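agent: user wants the structure for HMG domain-containing protein from Astyanax mexicanus. delegating to structure tool.
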Amino acid sequence: MVNSKWFGDDKKKLCLDRQNKAKNSHVPLSVCSRIGTPQTKKYISIYEPTVSYYSRLGRVMVTYDTKKNSWHCPCARTKRSCPHKYVAKWHLFQTHRELFRKVRSTEEGKHLSTATEDKDSNDEAELGSQLYPPKDIQKLKDITMYIYKYKKLPAVLPEHLRLPSMEKEYPRHLIPEELMCQHCPGNVPLSDPVLITQKAKILTNLCIVQDVSTYCKSCHQCGAQYRYQEWKDGLHNFNDHVLLSLPLCLTIRNMLQVHTAVSRVIEYLELTTGQRFPSADTVLQGYLHFEAVFQGACLS
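agent: tool returned. relaying tokens verbatim.
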């Protein structure tokens, strides 16, 4: 693989080190699963000496999609490579040499023209750009129904989540709390968090929190996708780019009940905070999204 420039000497050393560790532990370094797998995907079980949430049994399952020319490992982001992927490539290079004909399947680079270089390329970057939000209508429905079923806000919110506070600090990295797939039987671990944006905004009664990072996760087995939707943090995620604090949602509700338009609420907030808010329509849609997952009675 080094001679063919699929990866360099440093990756070769990494793979050999992993092989020695597996030998010392008297376990196979890599095993290809052939039971119940689609023809377009290869599943390779890789030895992992360190126990983690993705390797509780000392193994990590790496997936190679021959159709999309992409790799997945639960220990790494979609666009990143890792030791498990390198070992899996080494395994397939020996058992399925026909898969390594022209271009490399790697994770991180900008152009396929770098395929002969020892870098990470963008086949998974393209997959990552389509990963979330999905374009498939059924997958969008599945995400929506999961939020509606499992992420509803309670009819009565705790007081510390209802009232605005200058001392309130919101998390800057918003990651789905799920660790295991909620659709697959058994304990199927989700992928590591995949970054959606670093420029999300949290709208509050007192300010706009800028440069917030939002993430999603996915299940390599069924393809289910999960986004951040944790009301216990005092937040409502509208579209992963705009989030509303719960006190702001309740303020908008109260203002609508006294016949004050959302546009006037936004005008008031901009005058008070000195910051420019998203359009009134965007804020209104975010608020209506909040009401859609609220267990209380709908507004009349």
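agent: one observation worth passing along. Residues 9-24 form the longest helix (16 residues).
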